[in-house]
Amino acid sequence: MATVASLNPLESNNLCYRGIVGGVDVHTDLAGQLFGIVGRFRRQLRRSTRGGFDTDGLTQSQVELLRLVGRQPGISVREAAAELALAPNTASTLVSRLVGDGMLVRTVDPADRRVGRLQLTEPAQQIADESRAARRAALAEVLDRLDADERADLARGLAVLSQITRMLQKETTP
């Protein structure tokens, strides 16, 4: 297991990691590692659970929007755009397409008729529920194989990833 010794920006735009792996000092491009690992993780989780929205020929943005609405029924189009870091017009286009495909219902907020609220249709909600359960089960199975130290390392890593996400959101929020 690697032990972080220091963050060392060897190049101006690269975050590099200096650590010890098997007693050997190594330098690794953190940004490249992060892109690779997160991408592989998402793809493998999709393959492992085979189903849900990922098999419906939807774009990744559409899948993310459907999953968000599944987690937060009644979310506004504007809130969804902000949560997914999408331009409002891009989110609106995604919503229109998914409404047309029968996966989303857009209603007018009675308190503010300018606000559109989103809900999954019943078939989409069923897909979301089944997909979420399959992903959770697949992850629970492999997480159970980690020892306590590995789970603690993962929890710390997730906290850092969450912090990085918030920092990126602050930089891109007008």
From TrEMBL:
Signal peptide: none
Top-rank taxon, per record: Bacteria
GO biological process terms on file: response to stress
Residue ranges of every copy of the HTH marR-type domain listed in the record: 27-163
GO molecular function, one term: DNA-binding transcription factor activity
Pfam family, one: MarR_2
InterPro entries assigned to the protein according to its UniProt record, in alphabetical order: HTH_MarR-typ (IPR000835), MarR/SlyA-like (IPR039422), WH-like_DNA-bd_sf (IPR036388), WH_DNA-bd_sf (IPR036390)
Entries under PROSITE patterns matching the protein: HTH_MARR_2
UniProt-listed PANTHER family: REGULATORY PROTEIN MARR (PTHR33164:SF103), TRANSCRIPTIONAL REGULATOR, MARR FAMILY (PTHR33164)
Protein name: Transcriptional regulator
